[in-house]
């Protein structure tokens, strides 16, 4: 744990230096050995730090030349080199061998039946059981660096259900800008709810800056981590461009954070929600990838200053998730089984990665 703490601490320090301009765009970074000697840390710590910075788009490695700063402040809207169109991947969301084991689920369900008793028969609050929202709030704080209150959390039966609620919260008849390519079912749900879609071409770092500059929609739906079906993860600079987009348009961002828990390098991805200072980001995540495709539960985080207004717009709806499943997820979060599962998968992915 100490080794991990050191490289995360070094990562944060260098990231701050890059963002604040002490290392400028295209400037060469210190060699691994020099940085190791200067900071008094091991070479392995520096290697892990640089790998993390490179994965998030702050630096880029050049063969036989070292590492160079690739981050530009999103406010600059850098001109990107023309890239080949992003090719769609063939896999389907929810497939794979990484879902939680049946033995853990069955053991936890037996515990839930004995612990919660008649609570399982009581109606859920419209936003989801308060104790589940508390457990989820605590998990987001310690594991994801996201700070919210229970009132900001809304539980729903899958991301598709939450897309429909967001269409009503943000207003039917609106135009949403979406990635191209992007999740086809999401597109169809928005269109079924009277939303007009504006497609923005994806590059290897995220949506092309030129497409963002020309877009007319006030609302931007993005998947910054492992966008489906392209597999693209937006760089740090690109994420700041997305936030600046909302600022310029006086609009909003819907952050679809599918699969982000499984980042192989052991550090939570920086979410747009946690970076946002304007109360302009709505955050969606689900458990279909982390627990299993049959576990139809997702959650929506509302901007703090918009909670009362937004909940009033959807006040006619009851919670769409059975209480038994809410109690099951509460136990997985509070008992640590969920995080142990995530860490197992991350170790497996990390072992297959090259630093």
UniProtKB/TrEMBL annotation:
Keyword RNA-binding: no
GO MF entries: DNA binding; DNA-binding transcription factor activity; pyridoxal phosphate binding
InterPro entries: Aminotransferase_I/II_large, HTH_trans_reg/aminotransferase, PyrdxlP-dep_Trfase, PyrdxlP-dep_Trfase_major, Tscrpt_reg_HTH_GntR, WH-like_DNA-bd_sf, WH_DNA-bd_sf
Transcription found in the keyword field: yes
Extent of the signal sequence: none
Limits of the HTH gntR-type domain: 4-72
Gene3D superfamilies given in the database record: Type I PLP-dependent aspartate aminotransferase-like (Major domain), Winged helix-like DNA-binding domain superfamily/Winged helix DNA-binding domain
Keywords, ordered alphabetically: DNA-binding, Pyridoxal phosphate, Transcription, Transcription regulation
Family membership: In the C-terminal section; belongs to the class-I pyridoxal-phosphate-dependent aminotransferase family.
Listed name of the protein: HTH gntR-type domain-containing protein
The species this protein was found in: Oribacterium asaccharolyticum ACB7
């Amino acid at each position: 744990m100490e080794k991990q703490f050191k490289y995360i601490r070094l990562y944060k320090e260098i990231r701050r230096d890059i963002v604040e301009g002490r290392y400028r765009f295209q400037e060469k970074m210190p060699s691994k050995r020099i940085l190791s000697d200067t900071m008094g840390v091991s070479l392995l710590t520096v290697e892990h730090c640089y790998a993390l910075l490179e994965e998030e788009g702050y630096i880029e490695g050049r063969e036989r030349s070292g590492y160079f700063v690739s981050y530009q402040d999103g406010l600059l809207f850098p001109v990107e080199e023309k890239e080949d169109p992003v090719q769609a991947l063939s896999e389907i969301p929810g497939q794979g061998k990484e879902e939680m084991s049946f033995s853990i689920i069955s053991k936890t369900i037996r515990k839930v039946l004995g612990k919660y008793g008649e609570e399982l028969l009581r109606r859920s609050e419209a936003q989801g059981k308060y104790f589940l929202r508390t457990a989820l709030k605590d998990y987001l704080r310690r594991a994801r660096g996201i700070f919210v209150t229970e009132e900001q959390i809304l539980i729903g039966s899958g991301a598709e259900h939450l897309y429909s609620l967001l269409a009503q919260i943000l207003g039917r008849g609106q135009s949403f800008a979406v990635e191209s390519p992007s999740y086809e079912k999401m597109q169809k749900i928005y269109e079924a709810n009277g939303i007009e879609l504006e497609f923005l071409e994806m590059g290897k770092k995220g949506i092309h800056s030129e497409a963002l500059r020309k877009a007319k929609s006030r609302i931007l739906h993005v998947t910054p981590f492992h966008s489906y079906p392209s597999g693209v993860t937006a760089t740090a600079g690109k994420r700041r461009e997305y936030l600046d987009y909302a600022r310029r348009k006086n609009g909003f961002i819907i952050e679809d954070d599918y699969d982000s828990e499984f980042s192989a390098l052991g550090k939570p991805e920086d979410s747009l929600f946690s970076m946002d200072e304007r109360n302009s980001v709505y955050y969606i995540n689900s458990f279909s990838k982390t627990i299993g495709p049959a576990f139809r539960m997702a959650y929506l985080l509302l901007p703090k200053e918009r909670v009362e207004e937004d909940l009033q717009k959807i006040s006619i709806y009851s919670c769409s998730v059975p209480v038994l499943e809410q109690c099951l997820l509460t136990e997985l979060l509070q008992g640590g089984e969920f995080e142990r599962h995530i860490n197992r998968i991350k170790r497996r992915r990390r072992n297959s990665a090259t630093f």
